[in-house]
Amino acid sequence: MKKYRLVIAVVFAGLFLYACNKDKGGGATSSNDTFKKNMLINYADTLIIPAYSDMLSRLELLDMSSDSFQANPSLATQAALKEAFKNAYISFEGISALYFGPAAAQQLNNSLNIFPAGTSKIEAGIQSGSYDFTLLVASDTIQGFPALDYLFFSADAIQKFNDVDAASRKTYVKAIITRMKLIVSNTVAQWNNGYRDNFVNSLKTNIGSSIGNLVNQFAFEMDALKGPRIGYPLGKQSNGIIFADKCEAYFSGITKDVAIANLTSLKKYYTGGNGKGIDDYLNLLGKPQLNIDVLTQFDVALGALQAIPDPMSSAFSGSTATVEAAYREVQKLLTLIKTDVASATAVQITYMDNDGD
Amino acid sequence: MTKGRLPVVAMLMIATGMSIVSCKKKKNEEVIPVYTVPATYTFDNIEKSEATGRVSMWAGLTSYLGKAATRILSQDTVNNLWNNTGSVFNTEIANNLPYSVSDINAFAFNVSSKISDATLIKQYIDSQVAMSHFCTTAAAPGVAGKVFSRLINYSGLEFNQAVAKGLMGALQISQVYINLDKTTTDDNNTVTAGSGTVMQHDWDLAFGYVGLPTDYDSSKAYANTEANRPLAIGGYFRERGQYIKAGGIVFEAFRKGRAAINNKDYKRRDSAITTIKLHLEKTLAAAAYAYLTLSQGSSDLATRFHALSEGYGFVLALKYRPANSPLTSANYQTLSDIMKTNFYELVADPSNTKVQQAQAILSTAYGQLQP
Fold this sequence. Notes:
The structure holds two protein chains of two kinds. Chain A is an all-alpha fold. Chain A folds into two domains: 31-203, A middle domain of Talin 1; 204-357, CATH 1.20.1420.20. Helix content of chain A is 73%, strand content 0%. Chain A has 15 helices and no strands. The longest helix of chain B is centred in the last third of the chain and has 29 residues, at 266-294. Chain B has 14 helices and two strands. Chain B is mainly alpha-helical. In chain B, a hairpin with a 2-residue loop joins strand 1 and strand 2. Chain B has helices at 2-26, 49-66, 75-83, 101-106, 118-131, 159-183, 198-209, 233-239, 246-262, 266-294, 301-318, 329-339, 343-347, 353-366, and strands at residues 145-147, 150-152. Classes of the chains: A mainly alpha, B mainly alpha.
């Protein structure tokens, strides 16, 4: 009889302890960590590293097309080049949101896609043969996709590559593409040699954490879509005076394609593709409605972008209301991500330099 | 009239009586003096213009150095600011401070004479003057110049951050410690009209060097238009030291210590000294830690270099921590070596290994520094 009672007491004590552990949320935290780790593995292995590999192979193809074009600059080779250029630019939109860790270490976005291109500086550099792509800020606008966009597709591009002094122009183009390939391959190498493990094991949401970086970059890309990609050419910074030539990929006329590619890729990063993503994380955090709102707004914004007639550079003045509508939908999505998603995931938005001294 | 006052006196007597009782209860064998600690730093015979004035000079000097991002600085002006000669403090660089520019220019003292390692700090200052000649050219690895609004040297360092933050150690905490240490052997009997006893005066100077207004409120966000606002490390109590609650703790310890000296309660004075010393160096550590975090939270080089430069300055300031600091010499050396690494090299590491190693050294020595 006594023995029996003792057993019951032990069982009860065990139950009590078990209940206590559950109440403290220790179990919940560790399952969150498991979830987060699996989510980050999904990001690294199925989205991020493949996106960089794609970028690298697209740049190789671009390099080859560029060589063919320069060997025989003509409308036909330019058309083939444009296809390769478009594919590479769209591929870049798929890594644009990854501007942290290795990409930040390599200053990837600043070297590959600061637009509008500094066309007169580019011409001056080609003339003098003196340009330094490593200069910070000053050289951001004379290299990368925007510079190629100008060099390959501006009105008299073919003629310029046929000129007697085309050699220095060809050297310049080669230097740009070589640098783009170097930066991307360095970035891939850093992901493969250590950063990937660092990324998937960073399970907090503080400054510099993987989730912190992802959410910050979602917001940053949305800001860039709302600002430089749509808002600035639309005149949002210039009292409504339209600067269509300041849009992304102006000379090749693929502005709308790259904008849609940018937002589509952002949605893919948000959902984690076919695996676990920030959307599932929001559900886990008990924010299913916010997740639905974000997903819906992604589709609304994508639809609004798709409604813009091509070429988008003409639409800024030709179909202002349609572009304006897209701008507003992008802004709504930005607000959702920058405030609501950031606060739900306890991420501090840090990409603005707001230190006063 | 008299009738009306009586209850107040009675209440005061009761209150005093209660505090005696409660004090005696805590430590029943010792006789502990009973006195009140005022809520503001308000005592008889405070004279600390020499200290407060130097902190104002710090503000003017570092403000001038900050102009290097937009114009070429004058070496003569810098030398004059350093020596307080030639009446060079003007309202462009020394506005809204505890002292007006005419007061500062008229002071018979300067900032340089109270700086530990003045030669080293002057080298940083002169480097910033040299850097100002690059204020219109672009920076690159190995090349000094601008990256957005920031003027950096060949390795990414903003020299004015090394000066401004370095002086929080080489000027402020050095002078606070020197003056606090003096109070332990100072005379506390002979009162000089206006400045009190030597011990009181040294304590007041220490308080002056910390850069706080006498009615400091650690919960208040001071506007930079307020003349009596926290300056230098005093300002960083709120900016980067909120988590460790340094502002309120340091201000209270200064008030308690001065009240203790007035009542010859040297035990409480010494305990206040310990509190102040620890929390000042801890504030520097907390600021360094916060900036090292910020350097990892952005892809923008201007932001990253600025944060690292702030970190560099605060680590430099930690050189002037007390001998019994929880941060050992060996660990300080490692920390210092990390901050002296070329910033381009630091930002090229996607995992920020060295920066995180520096942060680990700080939190191992001082405990958790930021939320």
